[in-house]
Known about the structure:
The protein is of the alpha+beta class.
Amino acid sequence: MSSDxxxxxxxxxxxxxxxxxVTPLNLNGSFASPSNLKxxxxxxxxxxxxDVLRGVRVADPTEADATSRTGNLNRVEFSVIQIPGxxxxxxxxxxxxxxxxxxxxxxxxxxxxxxxxxxxxxxxSRRASLRSAATQTNQTNYYPLLLTRTPGWLQxxxxxxxxxxxxxxxxxxxxxxxxxxxxxxxxxxxxxxPGSAIASLSKxxxxxxxxxxxxxxxxxxxQKPAKLQTLKTISMTFLRTDIPGMMHKGRELxxxxxxxxxxxxxxxxxxxxxLYAYEHMGMLIEKLKVQRATCGEFIMGVTADGSGKCKFFxxxxxxxxxxxxxxxxPKSWDGLVRSLVELAT
Length: 345
């Protein structure tokens, strides 16, 4: 590796990504093959340089201002990486955009689940019947999650390149209600498993909640939901030293409800939070929407249109709870990425 080369895996963490969902990619062979990686790297480099666009040599004057900030494009490199910190072979295609003054990145994360590929393959076979015989010889590649860390103009050109070259559709990945809280619960469950005596949390938990919408008359005696003008966001911070106690209390509440024959969908942290907020603040947490969450594994939130954004933090060595030897091992951080892949599929 030369001195100016960048390890694509090193750009995955500590970077804010826009989240997108991608339908199966169709191309001749596997995208991960060396020949295809090299071919599409060259093709995208030429497109972004303005050398070739739909087979015609052009120059795009609208990108002159962007070029003054980034410098000229040196090259685009596609490569196969394993998501750092993943212990179950979570694979991605990295796209690294090397400009003179800055480097941008994007990742197409693969769904290697046989069940998912079978499900997507069934729908792909129905679409394939509409294609020509030559097109049907293409191989379907399953990379449903696209993470982009690029300016708007580059993101648009990259998505256009994907749709035109791989016969796919790319759209913003919207996070459903409860997804962010569920991700926090999974993080805490990995760091504080039931019965553990060692807390391995490296950061506090921070939540940003959106107050509920209230019915407001629109002038014709009809009511429509409207946001509060005085209270727009509720921010909460939970110290990492207090969270083990919350998880213990939440698990007790969940166990009692299940023993009483009730099926509780909420996790221990949300149960403890709901009890605290109601008793001390008079708030019903279930009426609020989680807009943003920060923990030792990620920062995740939604934009105004519901699209997701996420920053992943690198795994940190934690005490080996299982053997209690005092040795350290890296914590697997692939839970959220896998959840996003499943959501995008």
